């Protein structure tokens, strides 16, 4: 009986774990959908910003600024500010290791000296992985735990980028994050946040306006252009955070599916062992009853 009691306890524990894993799978799937919707909601907003830039860049005043005519090119070995998005929570497989490997490889291709590199880590669990790769993060930001926390985190990152530019003369900023491909897959992504891609600006300037009338503006050109670029930067950072969070939950979903399979296999083995032990115990009890009956009858 002690063996049966031990097996019953192990079966109960396995069933509890199975319930927890199923709950975590549901939560991960719901989170993926939530962050996917957040990314999709940026499409229309980004389109609005691009339309605004199209008007501003196509105006006569733009010719005096000549931004696209003389594109800004930074030296190859100029300082780089890298923002690497990982996770704060565990049970997401090789999520942090993969993004660090990708970021380090991309930075090495740029031939950036360590003295010219500044790194921000978003997510506590990515820090030790960076340290193991020989990369020191000057500051760590926590990953938002919900959609409501993304906006404030973006604002904090923008303030730090502004500090990089004003105090450290870092004008080249790159983002490294995971981009969701499906509910169970993702891939690392790199985005040059600054300087803004001049080809993109030129394409917007040359793009044909689809409306019947061309909008005008009375606001100062420089202020309006700067405000639109700030919104573009906001969108890029918001998308990076939302994509990374969706990918983190996709990785967690895969881990939970593997855990659920292992638990089911272990539970099946425990139940089979329990049934075998129970049948053995019943057989032994029946033999004892029969033996006792025969002893009484013989006596």
From TrEMBL:
<keyword id="KW-0472">Membrane</keyword>
<dbReference type="InterPro" id="IPR017709">
    <property type="entry name" value="Alt_ATP_synth_F1_gsu"/>
</dbReference>
<keyword id="KW-0175">Coiled coil</keyword>
<comment type="function">
    <text>Produces ATP from ADP in the presence of a proton gradient across the membrane. The gamma chain is believed to be important in regulating ATPase activity and the flow of protons through the CF(0) complex.</text>
</comment>
<comment type="similarity">
    <text>Belongs to the ATPase gamma chain family.</text>
</comment>
<protein>
    <submittedName>
        <fullName>F0F1 ATP synthase subunit gamma</fullName>
    </submittedName>
</protein>
<keyword id="KW-0375">Hydrogen ion transport</keyword>
<keyword id="KW-0813">Transport</keyword>
<dbReference type="InterPro" id="IPR035968">
    <property type="entry name" value="ATP_synth_F1_ATPase_gsu"/>
</dbReference>
<dbReference type="InterPro" id="IPR000131">
    <property type="entry name" value="ATP_synth_F1_gsu"/>
</dbReference>
<keyword id="KW-0066">ATP synthesis</keyword>
<feature type="coiled-coil region">
    <location>
        <begin position="253"/>
        <end position="280"/>
    </location>
</feature>
<keyword id="KW-0406">Ion transport</keyword>
<dbReference type="Pfam" id="PF00231">
    <property type="entry name" value="ATP-synt"/>
</dbReference>
<dbReference type="GO" id="GO:0045259">
    <property type="term" value="C:proton-transporting ATP synthase complex"/>
</dbReference>
<keyword id="KW-0139">CF(1)</keyword>
<dbReference type="GO" id="GO:0046933">
    <property type="term" value="F:proton-transporting ATP synthase activity, rotational mechanism"/>
</dbReference>
């Amino acid at each position: 009986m002690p063996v049966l009691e031990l097996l019953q306890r192990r079966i109960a524990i396995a069933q509890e774990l199975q319930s927890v894993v199923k709950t975590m799978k549901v939560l991960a799937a719901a989170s993926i959908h939530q962050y996917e919707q957040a990314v999709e909601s940026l499409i229309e907003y980004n389109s609005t910003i691009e339309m605004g830039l199209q008007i501003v860049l196509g105006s006569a005043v733009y010719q005096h600024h000549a931004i696209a005519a003389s594109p800004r090119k930074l030296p190859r070995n100029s300082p780089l500010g890298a923002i690497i998005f990982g996770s704060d929570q565990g049970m997401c497989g090789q999520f942090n290791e993969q993004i660090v490997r990708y970021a380090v490889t991309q930075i090495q291709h740029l031939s950036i000296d360590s003295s010219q590199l500044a790194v921000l880590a978003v997510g506590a669990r990515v820090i030790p992985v960076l340290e193991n790769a020989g990369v020191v993060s000057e500051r760590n930001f926590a990953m938002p735990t919900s959609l409501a926390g993304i906006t404030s985190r973006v604002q904090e990152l923008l303030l730090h980028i502004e500090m990089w530019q004003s105090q450290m003369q870092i004008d080249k900023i790159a983002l490294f994050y995971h981009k969701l491909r499906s509910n169970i897959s993702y891939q690392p992504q790199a985005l040059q946040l600054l300087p803004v891609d001049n080809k993109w600006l030129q394409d917007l300037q040359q793009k044909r306006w689809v409306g019947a009338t061309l909008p005008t503006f009375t606001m100062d050109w420089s202020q309006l252009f700067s405000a639109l670029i700030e919104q573009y930067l906001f969108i890029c950072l918001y998308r990076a955070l939302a994509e990374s969070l969706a990918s983190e939950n996709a990785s967690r979903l895969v881990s939970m599916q593997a855990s659920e399979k292992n638990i089911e296999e272990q539970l099946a083995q425990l139940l089979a062992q329990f049934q075998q032990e129970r049948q053995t115990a019943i057989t032994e009890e029946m033999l004892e009853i029969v033996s006792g009956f025969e002893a009484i009858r013989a006596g």
